Amino acid sequence: MGRFFVFPFIGLCLVLSLNSYAQKCSLDVDKIDAFSNEHVKSSKAAFGPKKYKWALTLSKVNQKYGWELLLLYSGATDGSIKKGDLFKMKLANGKIVDFVVDEDCTSAAQVGRGAIISVFRPKGVLSEAIVKDISSSAITLCLVNTLGQKVELEISDSEGEELKEIARCLLLP
């Protein structure tokens, strides 16, 4: 009679331990849009040194994944980022994934703290496969080769892990 109580007890302990180890997701946005009735999830993570302090937003609307990159440049920049331009991200496992710009993007100059800053917000679509890659291996390096400049930004371990966690959360139902 004792073993009939042991197996349910072990099962209960296993379920409770799995729940306690399960990670909670904390996204900036996780809601049903009031107008489109679409499930919208997104979160932004800043990365790079203070000179740049760019940010990458990963998003999911229903089953479609997307990205938006916030790029800040010192001074007024007249250039534009063209549809089809690539931003390359290197993952900790060595894999390189391409973020393809899906529409032309021009700068919006802003004045702040006595300086002019050019702001670009290129965006595009991501495949589920790329989101899965990011969720399993953190981004370590970002290559931007546009506007006549080539910039390689190292992404810190904590920044890469934050982006990895965002991707993991987007994959959840």
Question: What's this entry about, in short?
Answer:
With 173 residues, the protein is of the alpha+beta class.
Search tags:
alpha+beta; 25% helix; four-stranded antiparallel β-sheet; 173 residues
Architecture overview:
The protein is of the alpha+beta class and 173 residues long. The protein has one domain. The protein is built from three helices and 13 strands. Strands 1, 2, 3, 4, 9, 10 and 11 form a seven-stranded antiparallel sheet that branches. Strands 7-6-12-13 form a four-stranded antiparallel sheet. A hairpin with a 2-residue loop joins strand 9 and strand 10. The longest helix is centred in the first third of the chain and has 20 residues. The chain starts with a helix and ends with a helix. 25% of the residues are buried.
Which residues sit in consecutive blocks of at least 5 with pLDDT less than 50? 4-22
Number of domains: 1
Mean pLDDT: 85
Distance between the termini: 41 Å
**What class do helices, strands and sheet pairing give?**
alpha+beta
Rounded to an integer in angstroms, the radius of gyration calculated over CA atoms is: 20 Å
Shape call: globular
In DSSP terms (H or I, runs of 4 or more residues), the helix count works out at 3
Please report which band the strand proportion falls in: under 5%, 5-15%, 15-25%, 25-35%, 35-45% or over 45%.
Answer: 35-45%
The helix-strand sequence is HEEEEEEEEEEEHEEH
Question: Biggest sheet, in brief?
Answer: 7 strands, antiparallel
Query: What helical percentage do the residues reach?
Result: 25-40%
Q: How many β-strand stretches?
A: 13
